[in-house]
Structure formats: structure tokens, C-alpha cells
From TrEMBL:
Stated name of the protein: Lysophospholipase L1
Superkingdom classification of source: Bacteria
Start and end residues of each SGNH hydrolase-type esterase domain: 215-386
Organism ancestry: Bacteria, Bacillati, Bacillota, Clostridia, Lachnospirales
Transmembrane segments: none
Pfam families associated with the record: Lipase_GDSL_2
SUPFAM superfamilies: SGNH hydrolase
First and last residue of the signal peptide: none
InterPro entries for the chain: SGNH_hydro (IPR013830), SGNH_hydro_sf (IPR036514)
Amino acid sequence: MRGPVAPRDPEKKRQFYFLMKDKNVFAFPTPDGKGITPIYLDGGRLIEASKFVGNLSDENLIDMLKTAQGFKKLVHSIGVIVDGCDKDTECKFVFQFYGKNDLLGGGTLLEMPVACNGAEHLLDLSSIDLTDEDKEVGQCRFEYGANDFTANVTVKLYLNDGFDAPVQEEDAPVDLESAEFAAHVRDSVLQVGNSYRFNKAVEKARRGEDTTIAFIGGSITQGAGAVPINTECYAYKTYEAFKKLIGMDENIHYVKAGVGGTPSELGMLRYDRDVRRDGEVEPDVVIVEFAVNDEGDETKGVCFESLVRKIWNGKSQPAVIILFSVFANDYNLEDRLSPVGKAYDLPMVSLKACVTDQFYKTKETGRLITKAQYFYDVFHPTNTGHSVMAMCLEQVMKDMLDNKSEEDTDFDKVVSPIGTDFETVVLFDKKDKPVEALIDEGDFDSTDTELQAVEMNMDIKGTKQFPNNWRFDAKKHCSFSKPFTMEVEAKRLVIINKDSGSPLEGVADVYVDGEYVRSINPLDNGWVHCNPLIILNDTECKKRRVEVKMAKGSEEKSFTILGFGIVR
């Protein structure tokens, strides 16, 4: 290999901070057989990553990161290092600004080839002209020629002259086996609770009978941040720990049912389909994880308690463990949801209690793991973070084995701390109709195939959510004319719509019994995902008429009804 005849003098290194540092990434397969790793930076994620990875604290610089123009004023260039398993492999680094009017298609898109050999490549922003349509930094991504690619990536933000970057510290290795860390893991157990059902499940497993441990939650349960997502996620690691703990293997079965960006309001609708597989699976232990997703729960906890009771009252009488994960900004809804665990005497585990306080210590005063080591991004754990979560769940399982309850909790005697209005909710869609209803599809006579897809169980490829839907396709009908109607006996109703970032999606108006209830804008959340919304919450079960039609101004745009939740 020959070098250049007359190499240029090196440019003066600018001040920088890390946006990502040795982040382990895995290529998610695309339909064309290639691979992609998206890193989302919108919605405050760029700022939080700059804080906990790059040690950024200057509020003036933080404010500049909120807009595309501010970012351009602050950042001169982006340094990218990809250290892959094959030094001859090349990938594409894409840096995308989101648009003001067209979120995914309106912003500036920058691309750069990067050799996966550990060398740094610079994307110079100084000559790039942004447009008035550029709103904010949206995402960066790595695109590969294969879908099984893994690598460690580092991204640096080099600052323009006149701006000072914070000092970049080296993190000490994390020792998860230390006695000091074990003490933090023990602190994660908020409550051992009644262990009767858990020990009953263990006895069943040790008799050699088929026993299932299941997980339902949001993107963390889905495995976000884990690389690879199927074997490094906390759910799988907990499953492995459970098998080892009770000394059994092949008769222990695993169900993972996490859906990113969705609250227990959707979880209570998905449980029978995604965990119980419509009766094919009856779990023995169920871990429920919605502590960082339930800000979107309209009922502020009623749906969570309803889900817990729905699981508890299942045919197999499963044990229920409540898991409280945490975001990088220390946020979760533990205070709102823990009264459910206390009232029903359920085991509860808190990652906030385990790691958050020590984040703010120094190495000398007791910090054992940094935020950059625990968090993959502002919301999701790294492989190490997922390991910590599994260790905490294993700890509460050990505690339950050591503290056997003689009898079960009588849920009928418990005074509900929040509410149980949706405990008996059932999912209703184009395929599954557990209750009688009269449907007139109207112009909602198409089926949407561009859906949120998630990795279930041990799968690497995503399973499309709510494929049996009703869609008004503006391409087919040109303009809206006939609404979707449903007549059904109910006292409570939830509609599930598909959110999107496409400007081709429009607003729909919902009416119940002739009365306007709400307008649903699929662009409010800005990405393709499942969004449950309550359209009726009454105490009387009687015949209802639901009508969904495109709102004024959206007659030439599309809308998807994914399904309904019905309480009778």
C-alpha cells in the first residue's frame, strides 16, 4: 500500500465534544436486503446526548442545538469513526435535518462514504447552505450493503471558532460483578410483594412442565439500544437468568412484546394478541414495563391498572412484576404507577433507584457507571444498561424465592388506587371481531401495509402491527365522500390510528352517536406508529354509532384506522 507523494499538512484540530462514543450498532434489514442503523436526534434527543455523552452544560450552546440554523452556526464539521469487523467494508453516513412542513422529505440531507476501518472521516458543514424549510436536526444513520453488519461508531461535533467545547473525560470500565454494584442492584427492589404466584410458576417449571415468562412494554422492552436486539435486550437476558436461577432450560418459553412509543393504553389492547397469542399462550410470569411510556396515557394510570388486572385475572393466573425503567433526564412515572403495585402487593423494580443517584457522583465518591455507559440514547439503554435491568429483575426473583408467601393476594378485596375502567377491553379489527358489530367501511375500504414494525420474541425482522386495518386511500378515491361507520354495544371505546410523518396523511373527525368527539391528526407525533385515543368513556353499555370521516381540508389526504378497543 502506497501513501500520497506529497501529503498535506494536517489541519488544526478544532474543539469538539462526543455525540456518540464507541456506540455498538447493528444493521436492521431493509426490504432490498441491505442494512440501516438510524439514530434519532429530534425531540430533544440531540441535546440530551450532548449533555450525557459530550458533557455539554453551556446553556447558550444548548439553545443553539434546538434549531437547524443554530446547529449550523455552532458546528463546523462532524467527525465519524466506524470500526467494523471488515476493514475493507464501506458504509454511508447520512445526516438529516427535518423539515418544517414536510418532516422527513423537506429538510437538507447530507451524505458521506465512510470506510469501516476505524479511521475518522469529516463531514464539513461550512460550505453547506441550509434552507428556510430546515427545522431541526432529525437523525443520522449508517447505511450498509448487508443486513448483518455490526460495528462500533463514534461521532464528534467539531465547533466553529469562538465556541469552547467541554472537557471530554474517559470513562472507567464498568464492573457489574463488584460488591458495590450489587448493592445498587439490591436497591432497585422497591417491593418484593406477594411471591405466591411466582413460586407457583417456579414449582411448575421444576416439575418439567412448560412454563412461559413474558414481557410487555414499550421500546425498551422491544429491545431498543440493544445490539443485537434479540439477544442483548433486558427481556432475553432476564429469561436466561430465570432459567439459570431455577435450574431449568428447554421447558421454559419466552415471549417478548414491546412496541416502541406506545403506552399501556395500547398495551391493554395488545395483551391478548401479542402475549397470549389469542389463547395459544398462557404465560406464568409477566413483566410489565410502561414507566417511561405512559405520559401518553390519557387516563393517567387507569389503563395501567386495567392492564395489570387484565393480566392477573388471566386463565393461567400469572405472576405480575412491575418494572420501572428510566430516561437519561431521570424521568419516569414511578410516582404515578407505583401505587398500583403497592395496592396489589406486586413485586416492583426501579432502575431509577438503582442507577440515578450515583450518576451524579464522581468516581472518587461512588459513581460506578456513567450515563454514557448506561444509555444508548436519551431514552434507551446500551447493552450494559440492558444487563443492569436484567440483573435488577433477577434480584427481585431471588428475593421472591427467599420470601415465599403462603397465599395469594385477593384482588377483589383491594381498593383500586387509580381505576379499572378498561380491565375487560377487547381488540376489534377487520379480522378479529370478538363482539358483534355492524360495519360499513365506506371509503375506508383499503388496507394499509406501511405500518409500525417491531421485533417480537427472538425475531430480528419486524412484525407489522395491526395489519388488519381500514384505510381511506386518497390515491384510490381521489376525494373523500363516504365515512366509516360502526354500530356496537359498548360503554367505552378506544380508536387506534396510524401516526405518520408524511404530508399525504390527513386529519379525521370522529363522532359517537352523532356528537363530535375529536379530530385526529396523524402528523402530531410525526412518525409511523400506533396511537390509541379514547372516544367514549361512559358507565352505561348500550348501542353506539361510531363515525369516522376526513376533516374539512383533508378530503384529498389519507387516514388509517388500525382498530378499536371495546368495553361492554
